[in-house]
Amino acid sequence: AAACAADSTIEALHAMSDKAFPVVIETVMKSPTLTPEQKQAALVTLTAARIVIANYRSGANNAPPN
Length: 66
Fold this sequence. Notes:
Elements: H1 10-30, H2 36-62
Helix pairs in contact: 1-2
């Protein structure tokens, strides 16, 4: 819920990513209705999103102070 709030922080989004990513990946991979290509596309998309979240957090922590 914290990650979806209007005043969410990158830490909340990162925490949600840590919890949700494994569950979503497992659900996608076990889906009997998705084709192997759809599963691969979902895996690539979710992994890219997770990398963006991780890099944003890393960059925000290393940004020079204003």
